[in-house]
Amino acid sequence: MTLELSNIGVSYDGGGTFAVDGVGFAAVEGEMVVLVGESGCGKTTTLKTINRLVEPTRGTVKIDGEDNADRDAVELRRSIGYVFQGIGLFPHLSIADNVGVVPRLLGWEHARIERRVDELLELVRLDPAEVASRMPAELSGGQQQRVGFARALAAGPSLMLLDEPFGALDPITRDGLRSEFSMLQKELRLTAVMVTHDMTEALLLADRIIVMRRGRIVGQGAPSELMHDVGDPYVARLMEWPARQAERLAAMMSDDGQGCE
Amino acid sequence: MSNLADRFAELPDLLAGHLLLSVSALAIGIAISVPLGIAASRRPRLRRAALGIAGLIQTVPSMALLALMVPLLGGMIGFVPAFIALTLYSMLPVLAGTVTGILEIDPTMTEAARGVGMTDRQSLLLVELPLAAPVIIAGIRTATVWVVGMATLSTPVGAPSLGNYIFLGLQTRNWLAVVFGCFFAALLAVVLDRLILLIERAARRRSPRLAWAAAIGLVVIIAGGLLPAAVRWAPDPGATVTSGPRGDGEPTPSEHQLAGRELAIGSKGFTEQYILAELLGLELESAGAMVVKRPNMGSTILFDALRSNTVQVSVDYSGTIWAAIMNRPRPIGRAEMLIEVADWLEREHGVITVGPLGFENSYALAMRRDRAAELGIVGIADLSPLAPRLTIAGDPEFFGRPEWTRVRDIYGLDGARTRGMDSTFMYGAVRDGAVDLITAYSTDGRIDAFGLEVLRDPEQAFPPYDAVLLLSPEAARDRQLRVTLQPLVNAIPNHLMRSANRDVDVDGISVEEAARRLRDRIASSRR
To answer: Quick one: closest CA in A to B112, which residue?
Structure first.
């Protein structure tokens, strides 16, 4: 599964100003592309053009060479897994119904949906017998986001979009879930595009990082490339922060025993 | 106690009428408002227009909204105008609940719905409506309580409801009847409200057990309420056998003459009219007819109903028709007025006058006898110099009538203050000195009972008010009906009517019993 965005522009005022301007990148099968930048830089808007939650004003998005604009938007979205910012489970539906929502829209048989739901809950390390019939509000934040992943994977997509998927979680839960997801993504050979404002997270998960600022791409490359070879001063500043954090932590470790003051 | 028994006897019919009216108005109101609310939640301009209009309807006093439906529907009375008014009235809370419920949904939910690949329709049905449901249901519950309460006001437009108890009780000082009507209306509102709550809970918890309980409850209530109506409409082979006395050897020429006829008797909202409607009912039922009563109508509404064949029989007063329906400014002599009114009714509307009943119930100015003696007042003309210090109470209809203008101008009563109040209360008000004068009805039993004096009217400013028995154009073609009613013509002299009124208003006897007594008295005075 390959994804290709070329020269994407999004304008909400009929072409006067662009929230996203001239954005283009590609992702190959099994690759994890992470879009980073401050709030309002256009990263989430760019993500939403991929499943046409936002229609690009110009430019094209192609999946396996086929232009998205030629496909039915509803059918397109059902074929792409989407993990929402703030989790976004439907509060009036049980966990099983939340996970099974896309298969149901696709008209799967009842028994097949049930099997699939159990399989997915196990995949995200939840006990189907325990959680399937419960309501989202009865689960912890981490459990809810596991359900969110299960829902995104339900129809067996080969492309996943993730909008700040770990943003609503506490640091410890976030860390565990991150590495689990990373393993899962590699195992299922999913092509994935993730949005985050957390540079550390981007460095930990990404095969390739795309840095955006004011609607444009200001730098891209593998984590190691960006760490060492920085062209743009804004990107350099962004990279300084996790690097300095790592240095401080290392210093503290070597001080040994003095810990936090 | 016979009073309470009479109230209970009417309960199934009135409860059925009330339930049918409220439930159908609510059902249609919801069927319109929810889809309209959904559409309005997506279109700001439609939203403003729909909520604006529904809000405007709500500001019309409910009684006025009901009354306005009658002329708007060309004089139609009964179920339809009440149903339309109640439907309109139910719309605002449901509409507002639907719009608010949908607009208040967290936008991430609608985006999630789109994001997983729902169509607009699926997003609405699977996500937005379920999430908005609690607010929509709250709106429906508000509408239910409003509509059940407002349905009590549909009595004056001729739709039978639990309001019949309240209006009758108010007019005949029968507070038991008022409490009775309020109690059952409140009970009905509470039961329907609980039931909706149960349905909501069943839906939210996806509990088939609760859903069944709610469905059974709803069916039981509606079926139970409508059963009496269904029984009444079903062909009843026993009806002709059981009605009227049989085999007593006495020839009863009127018996069964009207078998199979269904007749509606209309009446206005005061004691005398209730008694006369009851009396007419007794006569017609003993002739085998099925009788429906439409009490508590205003004068013009009643006339419209008669003219349009919605009711078949009513009793009106020559002076009322002369002034309020024919719009003649100046009264004429009693006998001429009877003839002219009858001619005009037939010529203009095809309404037939069977004849005068024999008594006159005119408006008259009355005051306390001791007060009149103290001030040296004998006739209305004596009031003129005192006018600025006087307060006159009358039914709200009276001060809008041409008769009042005439009396005021002829006797120079310009300075007097007028106070509209329900006729039930004005006799007590003048007795207790709260007002100086009232526009009494000359047949009212309380004139004697409360020590009131009717002031002389030498200028004949008040027109004559002979009670006349009227038939609608269709009913007029029914010769048997005319024959059945003919014996009532000139059969009720003034003193019989006044004592019947007194039975109810002063002695607290039920309308039904008073009508039976009046019927007996008519029969014995004939012998």
So the answer is: A88
Q: Is A102 on the interface with B (CB under 8 A)?
A: yes
Q: pLDDT by residue (tens digit) across A198-211?
A: 888 898 899 999 99
Domain boundaries, chain A: 3-80+157-255
Select from A31, A9, A43 the least CA-distant residue to A182.
Answer: A31
**B253 or B515: which leads in pLDDT:** B515
The domain spans of chain B are 2-231, 262-360+469-526, 363-454
Contact A151 B116 (CB under 8 A): yes
Indicate whether this complex's ipTM tops 0.90: no
Cβ–Cβ < 8 Å for B484, B257: yes
* B2-231 against B363-454: fold identical: no
Cross-chain Cβ contact B108/A102 below 8 Å: no
Query: Rounded to whole angstroms, how far apart are CA atoms B15 and A60?
Result: 67
- All residues at 6 or more sequence positions from A76 whose CB lies less than 8 Å from its CB, including other chains: A51, A52, A68, B117
Interface touch B116/A101, C-beta < 8 Å: yes
- Domain B363-454 CATH class label: alpha beta
Give the residue carrying structure tokens 């009970």: B187
Q: One-letter amino acid identity for B485?
A: L
pTM (predicted TM-score):
0.74
Alpha-carbon span B29 to B92, nearest angstrom: 9
Q: Which of A76, A101, A193 best probes binding to B when mutated, by most B CB atoms within 10 angstroms? A: A101
The CATH code that applies to domain B2-231 is: 1.10.3720.10
In this predicted model, what pLDDT tens digit does every residue of B113-138 receive, in sequence order? Answer: 999 999 999 999 999 999 999 899 99
User: CA-CA distance, B139 to A227, in Å (whole number)?
Assistant: 59
Fold assignment, A3-80+157-255: Rossmann fold (3.40.50)
A90 vs B118: CB contact, 8 Å cut-off?
Answer: no
Instruction: Assign a CATH topology to domain B262-360+469-526.
Output: D-Maltodextrin-Binding Protein; domain 2 (3.40.190)
